[in-house]
Design goal:
- This protein is an alpha+beta fold.
- It is built from four helices and eight strands, in the order ααβββαβββββα.
- Strands 1, 2, 3, 4, 5, 6, 7 and 8 form an eight-stranded antiparallel sheet that branches.
- It is globular.
Length: 204
């Protein structure tokens, strides 16, 4: 009978010992719950109620800041931006962003300023162009919105414009907002046009 060398026997015994030790460690790791998501992947929910109230109280803002009266179940606000006192040539802007349960994005932007619409579309729906035909407009919230789509079809935007409001101009306010021109209201995102229309219809 061939003899097993002491060196091979020692190596075999070490491997067997490591296997015996590893089994309970693996069991413990699998038993205890752990979050496989990276911390940086978590998206926090934000409360936009205070910024919204502040924006609506701003006497020089050329529009009434909007927000949805209701949102679909599972939608949560993840960002809010209010550039209400910008520098020379910078658009006045109010924005709220929402994340859906299936990680789709929808946003409201209100902007007043030179080339304000191009500014919003360039950020929220780069390269978007108007949709033609009967699908080119939708009605939501009592307003008619123009439909835009990006070249890859993954993002849509609903756009309407309104005259500036709530500005006292040279008689009381700074007059800067009064000279900004029409206000662009844009609802955009990776959700479909029906979802965007429902979102736009809930804006108050």
């Amino acid at each position: 009978m061939a003899r097993v060398s002491p060196l091979k026997k020692t190596a075999r015994d070490m491997l067997l010992s490591m296997a015996v030790i590893s089994l309970p460690i693996v069991a413990i790791v699998e038993w205890f719950p752990h979050d496989s998501k990276k911390p940086e992947a978590a998206v926090q929910t934000v409360d936009y109620s205070i910024p919204l109230e502040q924006a609506r109280r701003d006497p020089d803002l050329p529009f009434t800041a909007l927000a949805p009266a209701t949102v679909p179940a599972g939608w949560r606000a993840t960002s809010v931006h209010a550039d209400l006192a910008p520098g020379e040539g910078t658009p006045l802007r109010w924005e709220i962003g929402f994340l859906t349960p299936d990680d789709q994005y929808a946003a409201l932007d209100q902007v007043s300023g030179e080339r304000s619409l191009e500014t919003v579309l360039g950020t929220q729906a780069p390269g978007a162009t108007p949709v033609g035909g009967v699908d080119g407009t939708v009605t939501a919230g009592g307003f008619q919105w123009k439909v835009y789509v990006t070249p890859d079809g993954k993002r849509h935007a609903l756009v309407r414009t309104a005259a500036p409001t709530g500005v006292t101009g040279s008689s009381g306010g700074s007059g800067t907002a009064a000279a900004a021109g029409p206000v662009a209201v844009v609802v955009s995102g990776t959700v479909g046009v029906p979802e965007l229309a429902g979102f736009a219809g809930a804006l108050k």
